[in-house]
Design a protein that fits this description.
Elements: E1 2-6, H1 23-30, H2 33-39, E2 50-59, E3 69-78, E4 82-91, E5 94-107, E6 112-113, H3 118-125
Antiparallel strand pairs: 1-3, 2-5, 3-4, 4-5, 5-6
Family: Belongs to the 4-hydroxybenzoyl-CoA thioesterase family.
Organism: Halalkalibacter nanhaiisediminis
InterPro entries: 4-hydroxybenzoyl-CoA_TE, HotDog_dom_sf
């Protein structure tokens, strides 16, 4: 799991005083930086590999300015050339948003997806999401 803390800015609030819904996907992307480093350690765009093809956000509770927001990011599936991310956003101990996104390992020079190498798959596996087991 990767963990990132965001300090909300005033400009990210909306007219009713909570964090604007358009900000949440941007914050989730901030939480994926550790994943991007697995594919491209120096984060150079010259050989950028991670191309997002799908994203879903579930808004559960409002987020507010003035309190830090914790983003937890996991890998939920690893395929041949793609992988899925599961992420949660928490403020003051409450999960306020959940998300899923799908990325493809993409070679921008050939304009084609490519298989994810075994070493990268192994590193991704270190951050794999395990569903919480039900009590009882």
């Amino acid at each position: 799991m990767f963990e990132t803390v965001i300090e909300p800015r005033v400009c990210e609030t909306d007219g009713v005083g909570h964090i604007n819904n358009t900000t949440i996907p941007i914050w989730f992307e901030s939480g994926r930086q550790g994943i991007f480093r697995i594919f491209n350690p120096d984060l150079s765009f010259k050989d950028w590999r991670c191309v997002i093809i799908k994203m879903n956000v579930e808004y559960i509770a409002q987020l507010y300015y003035g309190q830090p927001v914790k983003i937890r990011t996991w890998i939920s599936r690893i395929g041949n050339s793609s992988f899925e991310v599961y992420e949660e956003m928490e403020q003051e101990g409450q999960i306020c948003a959940k998300g899923n996104s799908t990325y493809v390992n993409f070679n921008r020079h050939t304009q084609r997806s490519e298989s994810i190498s075994a070493p990268i798959k192994n590193k991704l596996q270190e951050h794999f999401y395990e569903e919480p087991k039900e009590k009882g």
